[in-house]
């Protein structure tokens, strides 16, 4: 997943750790308390289930996790709470493991990344951060302002472009997003100024049929310009979101075949537990996390680290 | 889509003996389903616990009404308790001396800026003179966003750029409102995390300067378990007077509404139902309750049916609607019954997934169409009504002449009926409204 970026790893780890401190103090520290203090008994299993549900992991996934763990605990004759705890960590990390490499590692003249999601999830901000992140790692990045709908969306992206030190290709508000994508790709190719083009799209609820069709259209336009583009289609998901996150992922996947998730607002107290169901049921991995409003509040997602941080004692 | 609480409870009760009263064991079994339904709707875990306890207490020993089966009886109680928890819709307090200051607050991305503009439009329609205030100096282009929205509504926006402290901006705006006789001042504050001490203090400072009559928390309808913590902290730190639930036009169940209501005790005042600036609805507890239970307004349908027909007919009709097994013959029979229950347009809204559709045609249009439909169906033979496939060109001409309508109208009816059947089948198969809508474009 790290495309020659391992030097960033340590920083990333620190960032995630920092943002997860609160989380650790919340539900997940309670989970570790649970394993340390109590005997393995029915009450403990109920409490565990309750805690998982409160992390937005969802009833189904929580129940599945608990019963898988129960079975293993009894099969392996595990008596010690701490051993059960280790097993749960392994189970949860395994759920988030992604084998597919991040496609920006592949050799290619122009990588096209399209960023989608519901209103206010953090798309534009994440694009600013991602652009900066890629630039720090030596990539030439250009942004396309294909949210021509929301008031001042273009200005917002332009400010992020400035902050990240990358160009933004934009047209007038209200213009056709398809035309923006087309132009942006042509411009990126023609002047060869870009290795990575990131497309900001308007926030849309997945229930809006015509808007989802519009996304499909954008994807087709990109595909016609560049072989197999967009190479990454990232869903930006607010960690505060509950069970609807899975439906969102499902519908966006149906429309544009998502390749990954950016999980934002992990600096709050929400746990973002829905990513377990999204990975498990739809096979869509988390690629990055957003941990604040600053340009550096962004990190590669590492499932083991994520779970480890969740369970680390407060 | 119909994999909902109603069906699950129906199944639960099928396994149990039918009794005159709800026994504790029946209720316990039913409460397991209720608990799951609420959790799946994002109602907070702890809130679910106390809610279920309340319902259980109410339900045990209740006599099952003649017109209802035990499952429906339980749903009725759950629904009533849910409606009670959601509370009455709250009105804005504009009774004091103008200018009335309304402050919006909430997490990042919850929809404050759009809601501020919607609220301004809503209040102008009520005869107020609103002034919008750009107090989000942090998010890039937030000020410009509000300015553009204000411009499009022709409502002035007070902004002082991003170098002046928000409490000062707000105080200046209120001063300006006094001087220029604006009657309402709406403060669009920056999105912030409830754990961000500095920014929470900023809200406190704004409140101290301008004393808002309304401090409204803007909450995204898609919020999960964390809603409780967010609402609780905002309420403790800044003191809320009401809630606005946004993005209700999506398909999130909106259980967060229950959570935030329960922990803050303040009323829900509005629902945001779309990106358009007029998409702000006054909150209706019964609607939201059905939605949280994932049943559309089937409940209202049950109630209406209860009032107008006997239980058998009502159940049959619900079944036919749900299983898409009705024919034009049934349709004709039901039309009479249905007409007793009110205009078809309002019935459409009650069926899960159909609400969106029914919004696209006006009530008058629907009822006018209904008259045409009735006339055309009346001109068909029984055979034709049961098997529309036999209706060939010559039959169409006859039906058209008999009903006083054109062959095109007969064709339109037949194709619409096929669509409805297909749609009902999709509904029965559990496809969402997204797919439904696709057939109408
Ligand atoms: N605390 C925190 N706030 C974030 C994070 N990511 C984004 N935000 C904030 O969330 C709000 C919405 O972010 P945007 O980037 O405008 O979201 P968007 O998805 O582009 O919004 P639309 O284009 O309007 O649909 C802004 O106030 C951001 O500063 C994050 O990781 N943590
Ligand atoms: Mg945006």
Write the layout of secondary structure elements.
The complex is a heterodimer of chains A (314) and B (441).
Chain A: H1 6-37, H2 42-54, H3 59-75, H4 81-96, E1 111-116, H5 123-136, E2 141-146, H6 153-164, E3 167-169, H7 177-190, E4 196-201, H8 209-225, E5 232-238, H9 244-256, E6 260-264, H10 274-282, E7 286-290, E8 298-300, H11 303-311
Parallel strand pairs in A: 1-4, 1-5, 2-3, 2-4, 5-6, 6-7
Antiparallel strand pairs in A: 7-8
Chain B: H1 5-14, H2 24-40, H3 45-59, H4 70-86, E1 100-105, H5 112-125, E2 130-135, H6 142-153, E3 157-158, H7 166-179, E4 184-189, H8 197-210, E5 214-220, H9 227-238, E6 242-246, H10 256-264, E7 268-272, E8 280-282, H11 285-292, H12 298-308, H13 311-323, H14 328-341, H15 344-350, H16 355-359, H17 363-378, H18 382-386, H19 393-403, H20 407-429, H21 433-438
Helix pairs in contact in B: 1-2, 1-4, 2-3, 3-4, 4-11, 5-6, 7-8, 9-10, 12-13, 17-19, 19-20
The structure holds guanosine-5'-triphosphate and magnesium ion.
Magnesium ion (MG) is lined by residues 123-124, 147, 153, 200, 203 of chain A.
């Amino acid at each position: 997943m790290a495309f020659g970026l391992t030097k960033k790893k340590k920083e990333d780890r620190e960032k995630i750790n920092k943002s997860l401190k609160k989380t650790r103090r919340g539900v997940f520290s309670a989970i570790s308390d649970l394993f340390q203090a109590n005997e393995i008994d029915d009450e403990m299993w109920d409490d565990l289930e309750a805690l998982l549900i409160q992390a937005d992991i969802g009833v189904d996934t929580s129940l599945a996790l608990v019963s898988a763990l129960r079975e293993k605990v009894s099969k392996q004759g595990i008596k010690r709470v701490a051993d059960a705890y280790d097993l749960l960590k392994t189970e949860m990390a395994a759920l988030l493991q992604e084998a597919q490499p991040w496609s920006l590692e592949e050799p290619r003249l122009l990588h096209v990344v399209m960023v989608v999601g519901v209103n206010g999830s953090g798309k534009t901000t994440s694009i600013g951060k991602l652009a900066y992140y890629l630039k720090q790692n030596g990539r030439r990045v250009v942004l396309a302002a294909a949210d021509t709908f929301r008031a001042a969306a273009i200005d917002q992206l332009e400010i992020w472009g400035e902050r990240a030190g990358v160009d933004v290709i934009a047209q007038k508000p209200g213009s056709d997003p398809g035309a923006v994508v087309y132009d942006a790709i042509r411009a990126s190719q023609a002047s060869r100024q870009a290795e990575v083009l990131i497309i900001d799209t308007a926030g849309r609820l997945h229930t809006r049929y015509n808007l989802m069709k519009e996304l499909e259209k954008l994807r087709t336009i990109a595909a016609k310009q560049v072989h197999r583009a967009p190479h990454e289609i990232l869903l930006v998901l607010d960690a505060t979101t509950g069970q609807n996150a899975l439906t969102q992922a499902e519908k966006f996947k149906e429309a544009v075949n998502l390749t990954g998730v950016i999980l934002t607002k992990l600096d709050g107290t929400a746990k973002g537990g829905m990513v377990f169901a999204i990975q498990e049921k739809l096979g869509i991995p988390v690629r990055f996390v957003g941990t604040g409003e600053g340009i550096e509040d962004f990190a590669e997602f590492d499932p083991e680290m994520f779970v480890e941080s969740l369970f680390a004692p407060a | 889509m119909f994999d909902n609480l109603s069906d699950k409870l129906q199944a639960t009760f099928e396994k149990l003996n039918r009794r005159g009263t709800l026994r504790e064991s029946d209720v316990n079994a039913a409460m397991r389903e209720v608990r799951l339904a609420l959790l799946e709707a994002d109602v907070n875990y702890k809130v679910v616990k106390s809610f279920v306890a309340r319902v259980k207490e109410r339900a045990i020993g209740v006599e099952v009404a003649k017109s209802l089966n035990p499952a429906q009886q339980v749903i009725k109680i759950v629904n009533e308790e849910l409606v009670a928890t959601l509370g009455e819709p709250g009105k804005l307090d504009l009774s004091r001396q103008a200018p009335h200051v309304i402050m919006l607050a909430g997490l990042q991305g919850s929809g404050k800026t759009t809601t501020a503009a919607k609220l301004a439009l809503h209040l102008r329609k009520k005869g107020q003179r609103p002034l919008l205030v750009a107090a989000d100096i942090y998010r890039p282009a937030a000020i410009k966003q509000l300015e553009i929205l204000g411009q499009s509504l022709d409502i002035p926006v007070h902004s002082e750029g991003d170098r002046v402290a928000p409490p000062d901006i707000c105080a200046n705006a209120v001063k300006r409102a006094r001087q220029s006789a604006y009657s309402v001042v709406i403060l669009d504050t920056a999105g912030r995390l409830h754990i961000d001490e500095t920014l929470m203090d900023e809200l406190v400072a704004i409140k101290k300067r301008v004393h808002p009559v309304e401090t409204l928390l803007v909450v995204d309808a898609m919020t999960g378990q964390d809603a409780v913590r967010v609402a609780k902290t905002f309420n403790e730190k800044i003191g809320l007077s009401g809630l606005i639930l946004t993005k209700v036009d999506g398909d999130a169940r909106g259980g967060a509404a229950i959570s935030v209501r329960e922990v803050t005790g303040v009323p829900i005042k509005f629902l945001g139902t779309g990106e358009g600036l007029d998409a702000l609805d006054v909150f209706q507890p019964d609607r939201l309750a059905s939605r949280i239970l994932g049943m559309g307004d089937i409940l209202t349908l049950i109630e209406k049916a209860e009032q107008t027909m006997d239980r058998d007919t009502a159940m049959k009709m619900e079944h036919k609607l749900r299983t898409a097994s009705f024919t034009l013959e049934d349709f004709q029979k039901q039309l009479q019954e249905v007409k007793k229950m009110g205009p078809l347009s309002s019935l459409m809204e009650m069926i899960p997934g159909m609400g969106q559709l029914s919004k696209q045609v006006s009530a008058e249009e629907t009822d006018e169409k209904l008259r045409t439909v009735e006339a055309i169906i009346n001109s068909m033979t029984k055979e034709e009504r049961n098997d529309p496939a036999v209706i060939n060109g010559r039959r169409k001409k006859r039906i058209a002449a008999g009903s006083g309508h054109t062959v095109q109208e007969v064709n339109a009816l037949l194709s619409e009926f096929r669509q409805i059947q297909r749609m009902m089948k999709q509904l029965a198969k559990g496809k969402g409204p997204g797919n439904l809508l696709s057939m109408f474009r």
